[in-house]
Design brief:
This protein is mainly beta and 68 residues long. Helix content is 6%, strand content 35%.
Length: 68
C-alpha cells in the first residue's frame, strides 16, 4: 500500500510511505524522502520504520510528517 502524498516538515520535500498489507490492523511502515534532499534537518530520524495501525503511530511521525 502506498500512502497519499506527505511532506517533510524539515525540508518540505515529498515523502513516500509504504505499508504491508497484514490481515490484522497492525501494519509495518517505511517512510522516507521520495528523492534525496540537498539538506534536511530531520535526516537523522529518517527513514521512519515500525508497526502501527496508522502512519502517525510511528516514532517521530508527529515531528516529521505534514500533509501535502
Amino acid at each position: 500500500m502506498i500512502h497519499p502524498s506527505l511532506v517533510c516538515r524539515g525540508c518540505s520535500g515529498t515523502l513516500y510511505a509504504l505499508s504491508t498489507a497484514h490481515p490484522a490492523s497492525v501494519r509495518t511502515w517505511e517512510v522516507d524522502h521520495d528523492s534525496t534532499p540537498t539538506s534536511c534537518p530531520l535526516e537523522p530520524v529518517l527513514p521512519l520504520t515500525g508497526e502501527g495501525a496508522h502512519i502517525h503511530q510511528l516514532t517521530h511521525a508527529d515531528h516529521v510528517l505534514a500533509s501535502a
